[in-house]
Queue: 3 jobs
Job 1
Amino acid sequence: MLRRLTAALLPLIALSTACTTVVPVRDAPGAYVTARAPGMVWITKADSSVVQLAAPKILGDTLTGFVGADYIELPLSSVQSMRARQPAPKRTALLVGGATLAAAGAVAAFLSSSANSTQTTDCARLNGVDC
């Protein structure tokens, strides 16, 4: 029983660590990319176009990375704003709490149904009357 419960909850632990949200970066784009090494950022350029940049790196005063399969270089001066994925602890707590309640409910339902199934009476022996 404990093994099944553990096996059911392990994927939820992995999912709960994936709770993130995309938020504006408060630091300078170059400093943020250097310090955090994000896997993906969303750049709003000076012309208001948005570029999804994978594996961003800073080379001097240039932001580099991949848009799809294409390698691009953007001068940091053309970056109007940057957004990036960051942890969302409140969402993670809600997911873990909800998963815990769901698991507890499933265990309670299972234990209740197995307790009821073992308490059946044999109708033929009840008051000596055949059913």
Note: The mean pLDDT is 81.
Job 2
Amino acid sequence: MMEPLNRDEIVALLERLGGDDDADVLAAARALHIAIADAGTAWADLLVPEDAGDTGAAADTDVATVATDLDTVAEADVPAGKAGRDAGALALIDKLLARPGVTEAFRREMEGYSHDIAEGAFEDADRRYLGALHKRLSAKG
């Protein structure tokens, strides 16, 4: 059975890679490799390619804008500010979950993002990832 990726666990392991203790760094690297393999995915599937979007202005790009560009949310339907960005993110999540062939692991990941939005823990990096994921999956058809 494939194990879903736990974002917080992956981030914690990545942060350990810069540590001073070589044994701990190696252990974190191996744990990362195992987590990715157990999830049945590859690094290339997790990392957004350079040509997937302009990362220089990414901090100024919110999901509502990305969603509008992708014809998923009309700009007039999205209120301004954080509430608008959250509404745009939720609209993208709904669009992604409506795609055929959605795996249970993917569904849980998207539900986790919905929970993060409800808890106020959804960050700009999460928005950029969600927008890039939607763009990449939309390009695949």
Note: Residues 22-38 form the longest helix (17 residues).
Job 3
Amino acid sequence: MSDRKVKIISTMIICLILILTATVVNAAADISDFKPKETDASDKIAGGTGVVITVVQTIGIGIAIVMLIALAIKYISAAPSDKADIKKSAIVYIIGAILLFAASGILQIFKTAGDDINETISGGTTGGEVILEKPMKQDIIKA
């Protein structure tokens, strides 16, 4: 078969798959009066996540400090010919420490964002209200 026939058959098969897998959704339910059930599950998860992140950060920082002290002692007590090898391992250590601190910082950002979303959903704070400077058209008509 020529390349053109293969392309036409492939395109027809893809179109057929798209047509057969398409789904129709008839959403006619009124969700304006939907009120979710209030639970304290999100508070429990948020509290547990905070503890885990704090423990991971503390352990990581502790290990990083111990490794830095050990590397410094090695460097100070090493012969001049061995100092070049220790500098190479110091570069690897610095990259690892930066990755450790970055990962824990990113986790902290996600935790903070999750807490803010949780407060917004549970009705604690709105996270930022929209203040209209100009009245909207329907407000002018009602007045």
Note: The helical segments are 3-21, 41-77, 83-122, 137-142.
